[in-house]
Structures are given as C-alpha cells and as structure tokens.
Write a structure and sequence with these properties.
By secondary structure, the chain is an alpha/beta fold. It has 2 domains: 11-68, no CATH class; 86-229, Transcription Regulator spoIIAA. The chain is built from 9 helices and 6 strands. A 6-stranded parallel β-sheet has the order 1-2-3-4-5-6, with helices on both faces. The longest helix has 15 residues, at 108-122. 41% of the residues lie in helices and 13% in strands. The termini are far apart.
Length: 230
C-alpha cells in the first residue's frame, strides 16, 4: 500500500469488514488503520464500527485492534476500549532514543501512556500488547530498558522482530540481530513478567496473534492482580 492521504471516511466500511471476516471464517481478526489525525476523533469511530460489526456478523471471532496513538487524546481511546476488543495493540516500534529518526512526530512516553490507559480503562477484559523492531542501531541494554518501561505500563503481550528496509527511501538497516539475541530478549521479557512473548527475525505484530488470546484467562492473570493493586 503506497503512502497517501485519505480523502474521506467511508461509513459502509465497518459492515464490509465484518462481512469479510464472517465469510472467511476467521477465529482472530487484527484490525488496524493508517493515522487519521485529520479526523476529529483521530479515526476512533472507524474502530468502534468495525468491532461492532465483527461482533454482530462473526461473534465467535476474537478481535484485536492495532491503533495509532490518537495523539494522546483520551476520549478517542476510551471509545475504542469501551467496545472491549479482546486485544488492544499499539506498537512503540523502536527504543526511545530512535524516535526522532524513526518515528518523527510520535513520542515513546505518549505511546506508553496510551497502553497503560487502555489497560486501566479495559481492566482484565482487554489484553494489552505492543511491539518493537531491532536493527536500527539500538543496543541490547536499550531494548531491555524499553521492555521494562512497557511492563511498568501494564503491557501483557510483546512482539519483537527485525527491521527490514522496504525501499531505498526508508531508513537503512544498521545490523541484523542474531537469532540467539532474539532468544535472549524473549527470556528477559518473560523474566520481566510479560505473559506472552514472540521474538524472532521474521516476527511481526500479527505473528500467531491468536495464540496469546487462547492462553489468557480473564480474571486470573498476574496483570489483573497488578492493575487491581495499583
């Protein structure tokens, strides 16, 4: 999909997505969008509509939303979380130091607040998830620090993958991480308390996305107790 600026918001899109999910017989659907900072609610209504249509047309399907940061605004976030998606996913993408280069206009701290607020709003009914890429010059220690910050913000599920350069116009790869390094990051992540971790060169945000939902039992997980205790 080429970069472009959407010109309008299609009110029939949620119904079409719901119908497609039903026809394909999906058991887990990941719903994402481009940033819609041009809309009053930053595109939150589109997520709401799609969640409702999937619940209506494919009630057995688990719903994961992969959202932008809504520029840190709580009302759009609250609208989405109120629909109780099974998974609320927002990727921080890179370690904080690389934000000025790799995520201009975004803030690591703001993304973390979005994830924490989503968990506080959704409680144990909503699993929180985030993802990071390696290969842009971050150190192992920087990755560990970022993972610790995500845990402090109640993130339960984590994905870590290798950055791959889409085109020559994108940032160059600084280095390829060895599979053993991904294994070590996964080990550290579990030690920090993440409930499900997928780390590997080809892992992406939707990698085996259904598995961590199947493993999550509402009301009994360590994250439920952590949020309840403050």
């Amino acid at each position: 999909v080429k970069t472009g600026k959407p010109t309008w918001d299609d009110p029939l899109e949620p119904a079409r997505v719901g119908r497609s999910v039903a026809r394909m017989g999906l058991r887990h659907a990941v719903i994402t969008s481009v940033d819609r900072d041009d809309l009053p609610d930053y595109g939150a209504s589109a997520f709401v509509g799609v969640i409702r249509q999937i619940r209506k047309q494919a009630p057995a399907c688990k719903v994961e939303v992969l959202t932008p940061d809504f520029r840190g605004a709580e009302m759009p976030l609250a609208k989405v979380v109120a629909e109780k998606p099974d998974v609320f996913n927002h990727n921080v993408e890179v370690v904080p130091r690389l934000y000025p280069v790799a995520r201009r206009g975004s803030k690591f701290e703001r993304s973390c607040r979005v994830l924490r607020t989503a968990k506080e709003m959704g409680g144990d009914e909503v699993v929180t998830k985030s993802g990071l890429m390696v290969g842009l010059g971050e150190s192992f220690d920087e990755m560990v620090d970022a993972l610790g910050t995500l845990r402090e913000h109640y993130v339960q599920v984590l994905t870590i993958g290798q950055y791959l350069r889409p085109t020559k116009e994108h940032l160059p790869i600084v280095r390829y991480w060895h599979p053993d390094e991904f294994e070590e990051l996964e080990r550290v992540a579990y030690e920090l308390g993440f409930e499900h971790v997928a780390a590997g060169p080809l892992v992406r945000s939707s990698y085996h996305a259904d598995e961590h939902v199947a493993q999550h039992e509402p009301g009994i997980g360590p994250m439920a107790r952590e949020v309840a205790s403050g």
